[in-house]
Design goal:
heterodimer, A: 414 residues, alpha/beta, FAD/NAD(P)-binding domain, 5-stranded parallel beta sheet, 20 strands, globular, B: 529 residues, Alpha-Beta Plaits, 4 domains, 13 helices, 29% helix, binds flavin-adenine dinucleotide, binds iron/sulfur cluster
């Protein structure tokens, strides 16, 4: 054990993995997560195994890392927290602001009564894993008590007396010997594309679909809560797009979308699935086999549709150029799934300013890819804050960052 | 304590690992069948021994104390090391036969073009008669970003530095690598022409004079075209090094179906193998770009540092073989996924290698292997009926679910957390791996009044013990056969697969099972019915 302390900003896969590795080396970690829940985007993903066989999407590994992190004695977790100021004078002095923690993580026993009884939609947020502790959070924008004190049902009904709606925010000052930025990515917001996201009820993103599958195991059309008859996936939404100046492939969307398509086809075989794409990217060691399998289950169309229209019955009309007939076809789908890309984390710029990090033209943080330890300043990065990566790559990046930090700090016995 | 690490490899990844470990003051042995070491080491804080012209002969022992035997010029070398890192290079196989082509002066493999371009930085007149160059990329077989990058780089050089016309004929263009979409745009801007095939394939003819003609239908305009390149560059398949097969066999570590040293199993992320203390990094485990090799090197160094830190603790409650009972049938030796069982004068378990999966104990025909808290007797003590009867039915079945600790136990807890209602008579019995479930465990459950028994295991390819789930399925299948013969309802025993994040599916599975058992009624094996 050493008295070295590392501040990790961002509690996604990258931050969790790096925390666990450093903690196992006997280094203290303070893990600062902005949202109410650890795990980042990937904690919401569904298992996409088909034929009782794992397809190596990596989602369950995030569960495992989260489990290891929350039970590790060397890791101090601050959820709902953000770094406000960092100054360096030998060590880093970091000012952290933590939102009110209305639900006491020690007391909450995950009984769900608060969430069942709350009259305001979206006021009680829930996590995705049993290792999201507490499993619930209160959304100040929707909570009626925090608006006008008109309701306190959850507080009154909680059998564990775990809810205190008068909780105030708090401030922490942390002294750190190194800082790791692992703030992840911003999922591309498809509202600006002509696909009707946010406008038409039955247009979802792949992120929405991942969560739907994790929650309910089956896909439903939002407008009527019934299984759709026809689904279209559109790939590269916000990726490989020169108009947006997004000159990158997000690397993970083909895998995520095709695995979900295959899973849906297995669980709900009556659903027809079409898949619109530019190039299918290789993912996983078993790609060739999986790809053959999926081509039998899913209709693959190498074209990206133009504008989307909603019909009177809330279905979606798509126009696209059919390769085999060279004609423009018009087809109707019940559900449209947009395969959204990975874009730079919103807070990158601010953090880069605080920590002297370089931003690439793309907006991602330039990673230190060189072999030597060019990290004299004690600031490190890991995960998708550097650019698109899948879960295994993110884990590897976090392991490498943990090693670089260890080399930099040289704890006892090193 | 021995803190030496043995590295197999002679390329950039091995080099980077060595530098990393030396910088942390660790002692190294680097072994390679090559005659010379292809890199030199700049750090000298740890000690390093270099064994060239050396091949591995055997590896015994376990993490912290591997006993390595190697051969150098017919001489045996013995070393003791704490950990092993495999960091072999990959190699390339040219895909001539896929395209019906043979190598010639105008049909060349990709690596040759890369070499030519290296030379060309000195001699720009290297392509005198050449006007058109065609690259064939993943048309009949899926390519990967490593090859795609090399092709795009070469095409860009030819197009912009040599003023040649270049064509890339491809099915799916693999741009899922760092900076590859930007490179793709750059090549297009420079004038590289992409011809993409989806439903059709080009016809490639070699004429009698050796020239190449490529005929194809443009999929967008559906017009027929003919291309007559002066040079045709054929892509390559990335395969493991020649040494990989020997290494994996002798070290007892699993490979993927292509022979790369790392099973296709998410539990091996990032640089782990089935054997504790043996790591695998870089292109020895997966097709990998250069930048990622440096990342892997950091992970291998980290894994070896953590290994040393972890060895201090003496592992508890590992498998133990009762030598009075053991008949040396070697079932355990063959079945242990972690190679924890070694043969000396006796069959023994190496405690530092044993992961406590329980497969050996369940498989041993003599019941000679014991693991504390996993014995059928101690497990059956947990099988107590929940005493909340169902409100809506006369009969509340007692259901025993043997759940793998890594998957089903987690899924069950998530299920409750998500607010799903589980059968009131359900009893979850946590086991480290479903491979530890023997006949005796399942019979014990029925003897303890279970109306139904479920074995909930990991998906195929997701078992930390690789085969534990398969063994569990076999055990269930054999008992099911028995039930059929004796006329006992086989529906009372079921095996299903889950992952830790499948809370909803867990609830569905156990509820469906409960409904089946309610239909069947109480088990006839139940006492005091
Ligand atoms: C639709 C979709 C599907 C995908 N499917 C797969 C898949 O099947 N398999 C796969 O391998 N990969 C998949 N991926 C990629 C996967 O999501 C990423 O590899 C992974 O989430 C990266 O983890 P991360 O920790 O880098 O970032 P994130 O998951 O984004 O986590 C970053 C964390 O940092 C927090 N944070 C942000 N800013 C701050 C701040 N200022 N202060 C404190 N905390 C902050 C965030 O709240 C978040 O919790 C998918 C991606 C998408 C978009
Ligand atoms: S498919 Fe994904 S979540 Fe499911 S077991 Fe495999 S890696 Fe885990
Ligand atoms: S319990 Fe598992 S790991 Fe341990 S010796 Fe037996 S089979 Fe091997």
């Amino acid at each position: 054990m050493t008295d070295k302390n590392v501040l990790i900003i961002g509690g996604g896969v990258a931050g969790l993995c790096a925390s666990v590795e450093l903690a196992n080396l006997g280094i203290h970690v303070e893990l600062v997560e902005k949202s109410d829940f650890l795990g980042g985007h990937a904690i919401g993903y569904a298992c996409k195994a088909t034929r009782n066989t794992c397809v190596k999407c990596g989602a369950c590994m995030v569960e495992e890392k989260l489990k290891n992190a929350v039970s590790h004695p060397n890791i101090k977790i601050l959820i709902g927290s953000q770094v406000q100021k960092i100054s360096k004078n030998g060590r880093f002095t970091v000012n952290i602001h933590q939102k009110p923690q209305y639900i006491d993580s020690q007391k909450c026993n995950q009984c769900a009564i608060c969430s069942d009884r709350c009259p305001s939609d979206g006021a009680i947020l829930n996590g995705f894993s049993k290792n999201n502790i507490p499993f619930y959070g209160i959304n100040p924008e929707k909570c009626l008590y925090l608006k006008d004190t008109s309701c306190h049902i959850c507080r009154d009904e909680c059998p564990e007396k775990a809810i205190n709606l008068d909780e105030k925010d708090s401030k922490y000052v942390s002294q750190a010997d190194a800082v790791l930025v692992a703030t992840g990515f911003q999922p591309f917001s498809p509202v600006d594309k002509p696909y009707g996201y946010g406008l038409f009820k039955n247009v979802l993103s792949t992120l929405d679909l991942e969560r739907m599958l994790k929650q309910t195991a089956r896909v439903k059309t939002p407008s009527d809560n019934k299984p759709p008859e026809r689904i279209a996936f559109i790939q590269c939404v916000g990726s490989r797009d020169s108009k947006l100046n997004h000159l990158w492939c997000s690397k993970v969307c083909c895998g995520s979308a095709l695995r979900m398509a295959r899973l849906i086809k297995e669980r709900q075989p009556d659903i027809d699935i079409s898949f619109f794409y530019i190039d299918v990217q290789t993912f996983g060691k078993d790609f060739e086999q999986f790809y053959k399998d999926v081509q039998e289950a899913v209709r693959m169309i190498r074209a990206i549709p133009g504008d989307i229209y909603e019909t009177d019955s809330q279905k979606l009309k798509i126009n696209f150029l059919d390769n085999s007939t060279h004609e423009t076809l018009e087809e109707i789908f019940d559900l449209l799934v947009l395969s959204i890309g990975i874009t730079p984390c919103k807070d990158s710029r601010e953090l880069a300013g605080m920590l002297d990090l370089k931003l690439a033209d793309s907006g991602f943080v330039s990673a230190g890819t060189e072999e030597a330890s060019d990290f004299e300043n004690g600031v490190f990065t890991a995960g998708t804050v550097e650019g698109p990566m899948n879960i295994p790559e993110t884990m590897a990046g976090a392991g490498r960052a943990a090693w670089d930090i260890a080399k930099y700090l040289k704890p006892n016995g090193f | 304590m021995n803190n030496k690490t043995l590295i197999f490899g002679n390329g950039p990844c091995a080099h980077c690992i060595a530098e990393n470990l030396l910088a942390a003051g660790k002692d190294l042995v680097i072994a390679t069948p090559d005659k010379t070491l292809h890199f030199s080491l700049s750090v000298d804080s740890g000690s390093v021994e270099i064994l060239t012209d050396t091949r591995l002969v055997s590896c015994r022992g376990s993490a912290g104390n591997f006993r390595i035997l190697a051969a150098q010029n017919n001489q045996e070398i013995a070393r003791r090391v704490a950990g092993v890192i495999i960091a072999e290079e990959d190699q390339r196989k040219s895909n001539f036969s896929q395209y019906g082509l043979k190598a010639s002066s105008n049909v060349i493999p990709l690596f040759r073009m890369t070499e030519l371009l290296l030379d060309a930085s000195r001699d720009p007149g290297i392509f005198p008669e050449v006007k058109k160059v065609a690259f064939l990329n993943g048309i009949f077989q899926e390519s990967n970003p490593v090859i795609a990058e090399e092709i795009m780089q070469s095409a860009l050089r030819l197009q912009s530095d040599f003023n040649l016309k270049t064509y890339i004929l491809t099915n799916n263009l693999k741009v899922a690598g760092n900076g590859l979409e930007a490179l793709h745009r750059e090549t297009k801007k420079a004038g590289v022409v992409y011809i993409k095939f989806t439903d059709t394939r080009p016809e490639i003819h070699s004429e009698s004079d050796g020239s190449i003609q490529i005929e194809f239908i443009d999929e967008i305009t559906s017009k027929k075209f003919r291309l007559t390149p002066d040079i045709t560059v054929v892509d390559e398949t990335v395969v493991p090094s020649n040494y990989a097969a020997d290494l994996s066999r002798i070290l007892g570590v699993d490979t993927d179906p292509d022979g790369f040293i790392q099973a296709d199993n998410v539990h091996r992320f990032t640089v782990f193998t089935n054997r504790k203390g043996i790591m695998t990094a870089g292109p020895s485990r997966i097709i990998q770009a250069r930048d990622d090799q440096i990342v892997d090197a950091g992970n291998a160094a980290l894994a070896s540092a953590l290994l040393m830190a972890g060895l201090a603790a003496v592992p508890e409650n590992r498998a133990e073989i009762d030598k009075g009972q053991c008949i040396r049938c070697l079932t355990c030796y063959r079945r242990c996924p972690y190679r924890a069982i070694t043969l000396n004068t006796r069959v023994v378990v190496e405690p530092h290698a044993c992961e406590r999966c329980g497969i050996c104990a369940a498989q041993c025909p003599r019941g000679a292997i014991h693991i504390k808290d996993l014995e059928p007797a101690s497990i059956s003590k947990q099988m107590t009926t929940g005493d909340t009867p169902r409100e809506d039915a006369a009969f509340t079945p007692f259901l025993v679910a043997f759940c793998c600790s890594r998957s089903a136990v987690q899924a069950g807890e998530l299920s409750l957390c998500m607010g799903h209602k589980l059968p009131p008579g359900l009893k979850v019995i946590e086991v480290p791996c479903s491979g530890s479930i023997s006949f005796n465990h399942i019979f014990a459950a029925f003897k303890r009044n279970a109306d139904g028994v479920m074995v909930l295991t990991c998906h195929e390819g997701n078992c930390h013990s690789e085969q534990g789930n398969t063994f569990a399925k076999q055990t269930v299948a054999q008992i099911t056969d028995m039930f059929l013969q004796i006329g006992f309802e086989k529906e009372r025993l079921a095996v299903q697969t889950l992952a830790s994040n499948m809370g909803t599916e867990f609830a569905e599975m156990v509820s469906r099972f409960e409904a089946n058992i309610i239909e069947l009624g109480p088990s006839r094996l139940k006492k005091n019915q």
